[in-house]
Amino acid sequence: MTKAVGMSVPHLDAQPAAFAKASRFGRGLYACLTAHRDELFALTDAMLCADGSGAGT
């Protein structure tokens, strides 16, 4: 069974200033990563976008 992989995208009603600030943060974080940059960035993105606190898992 094939599963779709989602990417984090802004909501259509997102505030442009907030999105710009988050984009700057993401670019800065990506620039700081060296080894396995893409994988670490994707993992960080997944953790930040996950629902819930993760307590008890």
Structural class estimated from helices and strands:
mainly alpha
Average residue pLDDT: 77
Number of DSSP helices? Answer: 2
Largest sheet: none
Helix content: 40-55%
**Radius of gyration from the alpha-carbon trace, in angstroms:** 14 Å
β-sheet strand percentage: under 5%
Produce the secondary structure layout.
Blueprint: H1 16-32, H2 37-49
Care to describe what's here?
The two termini are 26 Å apart. 0% of the residues are buried. This protein is flat. The mean pLDDT is 77. It has 57 residues and is an all-alpha fold. It has 2 helices and no strands.
Keywords for this entry:
mainly alpha; flat; 2 helices; about 0% strand; about 55 residues; single chain
Short description:
This protein is an all-alpha fold and 57 residues long. It is 53% helix and 0% strand.
